[in-house]
Amino acid sequence: MAAAKKKKVTVKKKTVTKKKVALKKNIKTTKKTINKKTKEPKKNGRPTIFSKKLASEIIDRILSGVSVRDICLDPKMPGETTFFRWFHVTTEDKELMGFREQYVQAKAFAAELEADAMNSIADNVGFPLVIDGKVIKDDDGKMVMIKDAVSVSHAKLKIETRRWTVEKLVPKKFGTKLDVTGEIITKVIVKDMTGG
């Protein structure tokens, strides 16, 4: 029994020393991340504090057709959680409210670009016709395209995906549901049928 107790004690000592080593390593790493000039900790990770400059860069990327998901994958940009926290803020912060309005406008503009892209995708289905190493062009100077079943179904998938996205982003303009509202006015005429 005494031997069993000694084994437990030694196990505890080993874990305690491992914890001390881990603590020492953590202290060393925090010392390394302190900026020598300002004596402040270095900023690591993604930005979490809202700024006009950062918001402007995000909006510019959205306007150029980059998705929010792809923007948030950039290590210089905030993560998705931070982005949507800014977007759904309920305070009266004018900068964040302005960011929300700019975001909505940028997404509507991006929907317009996607709608334009659908025509381009439909017009450029297939691959160019090449004869003797030369690309064949029609009378208008456009490349003659060979359309096979695979390229047509791929283009159809791209168009349907864009159509669904556009319908969800701007349903009033691109939605498939008709919003029929109106007023019905009825007039009731009562005639005296008693003969008198």
List the helices and strands and how they pair.
Blueprint lengths: L1 H31 L19 H12 L4 H6 L6 H8 L6 H30 L3 E2 L1 E2 L2 E2 L9 E2 L2 H21 L1 H4 L22
Antiparallel strand pairs: 1-4, 2-3
Helix pairs in contact: 2-5, 5-6
Largest sheet, if any?
A: 2 strands, antiparallel
The fraction of residues in strands falls at under 5%
Alpha-beta content class: mainly alpha
The count of DSSP E runs of length 2 or more, i.e. the number of strands, is 4
What's the end-to-end separation, in Å? 120 Å
Estimate the global geometry from the Cα principal axes: flat
In short:
Helix content is 57%, strand content 4%. The chain is mainly alpha-helical. The protein has a two-stranded antiparallel sheet with strand order 1-4.
Note down, in words, how this protein is organized.
This protein is mostly helical. It has a domain of 120 residues: Arc Repressor Mutant, subunit A (Orthogonal Bundle), CATH 1.10.10.60. It is built from seven helices and four strands; from the N terminus they run H-H-H-H-H-E-E-E-E-H-H. It has a two-stranded antiparallel sheet. Strands 2-3 form a two-stranded antiparallel sheet. Helix 2 packs parallel to helix 5 and helix 5 packs antiparallel against helix 6.
